[in-house]
Amino acid sequence: MSPVLPVFLSAAVLSSVMASSAVAQTADVGRALVVSDNLRLTMNTARTGAGPVTAKEFIVPYAGRIRVKLQVKSESAGHTAHGYVISQVDLCTSTTTSGTFESFTCDVRVVEGDLVKVVVDGELVPATSFGTVRRVHVFYDVVNASGLGKVLLD
Amino acid sequence: MNPVATLLSAALLSFVITTGASGQTADVGRALVASDVLKLAADTARSSGEVTLVKQFLVPYAGVVRMKFELKSDGTHTATAFVESQIDSCPLSQTTLATFQSFTCDLRVVVGDVVQISVGGEQDGATFSTGVVRRARVFFNVINASGSGTTLPDEPDPFASPEAPDAAAVDPLPSTGGKS
Question: Which residues in B lie closer than 8 A to residue A90 (C-beta atoms)?
């Protein structure tokens, strides 16, 4: 028998033990998003619509909660303009009648890989008026997931 | 070369290679499977005439969870509970009994899903009877994800036109045996 074979087999066994240990240490419970003031995504272009119109879209990497800051104004001062932040599991509404941009902050819950939409809307009655949204900024931190569920409403 | 040194060198090299490979494939995440292990409970009795959201749960991973809850009505009208996730819903849960009845349903969920239970009574003229939900509970186990997809049951569309019989699948342009 080759003298190398026992050494090779011993090395394989030892390596297996070491690797198994390493894998057990690296196993984790995944990632989650929590609201923060760390800017991650920026969409500054002003978009106008009535009807409503999807003005911005972005994707988030994990489930959790994110903070969305946006500016909304009405193109016809005195008429209502809405900026909606819509995820698969949450909705936040920002409303103004101001003709100059107003800042809003929304914390919304998202699922993993969520496609979050920012929708702008004006008024259709008594006459069509437009809303404008700009400076949509997305903030979050990535943390280790708790691995637990949660009761949100009892 | 010293056999001990050879052994350690080989083991170290193998470890580095194995660990690198494991970094790509070792952890495919977690998933939920329906079980009888209680994880979340919202026991408070909630009632409503018009359909109203009364219970909400956040689940940590994708998979299937088991929902259990109790529902009652006023003894004459139908009370209905709706249980839904972002990608699935349970069959309607209904009762006309004035004592709590137990319902169970397995529900598919995505990561970070919000599972909701809504309840309502039955419209009777201008008013609604009242439905009551209590003891809404979520059961699941957390396991390692398979890392692969799953084919769900491929049910035939009941509204589809009847498929042509297999005989019609015969090649409409059979070979001419090489003749032109």
Answer: 114
Identity at B20, one-letter amino acid code: G
Residue B150, min C-alpha distance to chain A (Å)? 18
- Helix A4-26 crosses helix B3-25 at what angle (to 10 degrees)? 40
B42 with A148: Cβ contact below 8 A: no
Q: For residues B150 and A133, give the distance between their C-alpha atoms in angstroms, rounded to a whole number.
A: 41
pLDDT digits (tens, 9 = 90+) for A102-139: 999 999 999 999 999 999 999 887 778 999 999 999 99
User: In chain A, positions 132-151, which contact chain B (CB-CB < 8 Å)?
Assistant: 145-151
Asked if the structure places residue B70 within a domain, the reply is yes
Residues in chain A: 154
Q: Does A14 touch chain B if contact means CB atoms closer than 8 Å?
A: yes
CATH of the domain at B132: 2.60.120.260
The total number of structural domains in chain B stands at: 1
Fold classified for A31-142: Jelly Rolls (2.60.120)
> Domain residues for B72?
42-144
Beta strands in chain A (DSSP E): 31-43, 47-49, 53-59, 64-74, 81-86, 91-96, 102-110, 115-121, 131-144, 150-153
Measured CA to CA, the distance from residue B32 to residue B65 in angstroms comes to 7
Q: What is the ipTM of this complex?
A: 0.71
Query: Which of B19, B43, B64, B111 to mutate to test binding with chain A, by most A CBs within 10 Å of its CB?
Result: B111
The answer as to whether B46 is a domain residue is yes
Is the pTM higher than 0.80? The answer reads: no
pLDDT classification of A27: cutoffs 50, 70, 90: low
